[in-house]
Amino acid sequence: MPTRSIVLMSLICTILSGCLANDAERGLAGAATGAVISGATGGDPMAGAVVGGAAGYFCRDLNVAGCRNQ
């Protein structure tokens, strides 16, 4: 169960953070989203923030569709 939640959270954070202007903004949005989703699903909000922040920050480097500097 925790692995599935982490994967789902990472996917959602990456999708939501793709529309911001730069890596820092996407990282902050991903961290906030990850913490909220993780807390809501019974996980550790700090771990969610770390995973979400990393997903948001590195989505452009990983060539995620829709995630680019504008």
Secondary structure layout plus pairing:
Layout: H1 2-17, H2 23-40, H3 45-58
Structure description:
The chain is 69% helix and 0% strand. It contains 3 helices and no strands. It has helices at 2-17, 23-40, 45-58.
Q: Which terms summarize this structure?
A:
70 residues; mainly alpha; 69% helix; elongated
Q: Percentage of helical residues?
A: 55-70%
Query: What oligomeric assembly is this protein in?
Result: single chain
- Largest β sheet strand count, sense and barrel closure: none
Kindly state the mean pLDDT as a whole number? 78
- List the domain count as a whole number: 1
Order of helices and strands: HHH
Number of strands: 0
Low-confidence stretches: none
Strand content: under 5%
Alpha-carbon distance between the two ends: 36 Å
Computed over alpha carbons, the radius of gyration is 11 Å
Tally the helices: what do you get? 3
Structural class: mainly alpha
Taken from the alpha-carbon principal axes, the silhouette is elongated
Brief summary of the model shown:
The chain is mostly helical.
